[in-house]
Amino acid sequence: MSSSRSVDHPLQPGDRAPNIVLDAISREGKIALDDFRGRSPLLVGLFRGLHCPFCRRHVAAMAQLNPALKERGIECLAVVKTPVERARLYFRYHPVPDLLAASDPEGASHRAFGLPILEFTENETEWPHKIGMDLIMTMRIDLPGELPEPMNPAAAGDLLEKKDGYEITKADQQIMIAGHMPLIGEFLLDREGVVRWSFTEAEEGGRNVCRGPNPEELMSAASQVVH
């Protein structure tokens, strides 16, 4: 696994994406970001791992947009911080047709794209590196059809876990860091590998936590990248 560098804040539009080489989940072998350079724009989603109920939904949302993006000539790559065998097992039972997926249990891609690891504290917030549980309890996640009402992220996560019946295995536990949560993001790269649009949990002072990008906004950015 390789990444050219660690950066201390999320990559912004205009920044050149690093090359990362990861184990493919959807097929054998490796996937490198450089494989797409000079060939096609790429939407890369860097997710926590399949143990995270919000990330499972972000991956499914990306799979839904994949055909429309492909029509515009844009490839999609979902990167999960889940060991490759565990991820392959999950996708065998929850297939995401045609979505390229890669495993990054070490979190190399998160570091290379500058996504911080958030530490949970009792009442100290220093966004995006620390967040107090007092603040988390005031936040609300709204997922109509999935949650009975807007709920704080902890309660929403617990309810979605029960709903999904996802079983945390030893492989999942190996990548979970007690009291910490890697922040996630999606980055739209042009054909030359330069970031043209991004959506991360690190932005907006925490208002994006556990949320995914607005599909209309993403598709609008996608049409700009192609031209």
Automatic annotation (TrEMBL):
PROSITE patterns: THIOREDOXIN_2. InterPro entries: AhpC/TSA, Thioredoxin-like_sf, Thioredoxin_domain. Pfam families: AhpC-TSA. Residues 11-227 form the Thioredoxin domain. Signal peptide: none annotated. Coiled coil: none annotated. This is AhpC/TSA family protein. It comes from Sinorhizobium numidicum.
